[in-house]
Amino acid sequence: MPIPKDLLDIMACAFCKAELRLDGEKLRCANAECGLVYSIKDDIPIMLIDEAERPCPKCSTPREWNDDILRCAKCGATLKYERRPSAPAEGGKK
Question: Is 90 helix (H, G, I), strand (E, B) or coil?
Fold first, then answer.
């Protein structure tokens, strides 16, 4: 069973927070610089960065995930994970 469109519409890449696209039996990050590919097992998306395929956008070599940085050992391309502050809860003090 494919991922329902309403669920896919609210999902985001665990690394860069870009939208995801269904690519056969996997979810692919729409951000070309990131490009993580997440597996779907038993109809459940596995959204862990450690378990994602991490192909380099320049040379397609699998990238290493270390200290919040995706790094390609072959070409040296890097992408740093940027933590974003969470939005304040609704109804909270201003």
Answer: coil
